[in-house]
Structures are given as C-alpha cells and as structure tokens.
Design brief:
Helices cover about 20% and strands about 35% of the residues. It has about 170 residues and is an alpha/beta fold. It has one domain: Nucleoside Triphosphate Pyrophosphohydrolase, CATH 3.90.79.10. A hairpin with a 2-residue loop joins strand 5 and strand 6.
Length: about 170
Amino acid sequence: MPEHAWVRPTARVVVLDPGGRVLLLGARLTDPAVPPGDVLFWYTPGGGVEDGESVREAAARELAEEIGLVVEPSALEGPVWFRRHVGSFAGVQVDSRETFFVLRDVVHEVDATGRTELEVLGAEPHRWWSAADVAAAEEEFAPRELAAVLPELLAGPWRRPPRVVD
C-alpha cells in the first residue's frame, strides 16, 4: 500500500427487504472530472464517517443521504462485517476501513434527493437483488464475496462478533 493513502473510516448498511433482497447502488464514477460510465460494481449504501460521529451514526446518516431512508442508529444490527479496501479515486489512494451493519424488513422507495454533489454527479442506479441474483451475476460487488456471505445475514439476527470479508 502506498504510504500516502488517505485512511477513510467508512460505515455501510446491508439493507434487506421482507423478502430477503438486498439494496445495492451501482458505482459509475472514477473521477469527478470524468463523466460516469457503465456500472463498475454494486455496493451497499454508506460512506465516510465525519468528525465527532460514531460509525453507527454515520451509517444512519448515509442511509438518509443516499436513499432517503431515515432510521435511528439503534435500529441498525451489528456491526456484522469489517472490510478493508485500498483503491484509487480521482488519482488519490484511499484506504477504506469499512464497518457494515444490517437493517432488516425494509419497505422503501429509494429517494436520492439528499445525495451529495459528488453522489449526484455519479448518477448511480439502485437495484434490489435476491441472494440468487447476486450469486448468478457476472457483475462485480463490494464486498467481492457478497454472494458467499449474504446467506449468513439472511438466516436471522446476527448474534456473533463481526467477521472480516473481502
């Protein structure tokens, strides 16, 4: 890893509907100076933790911003997963330290009006995916092993320590 990577604590939420489908957003932006292209990968709602904010509070705030879903931080189950991802965005190396929570039985129509300027620029699509859809897809996901770890979450409330996922 480059020694100048920006370490970014990140909060994410695995949003599940009553049928066990997961809500994912399609990442299309690699640099704000470059128009977004096709979906590069699908990921759970979430984003950076702001100063003075807990990871759980950040996760709830990100749900409101990205998909228009307002929940109390205490409604989030977990943390269930931890993930570290190092990658480049706009020429900057970002070392994302991701903490994932779960929100179950969500019935919600995505409302993107609260997205940040950068999120609006990316014009990201959203889609509800079944575990079978994820497993059968040729698409990329974040975490990469989503198809393998999603069934554990669907089995019921998480009652163990968080696991590390890739």
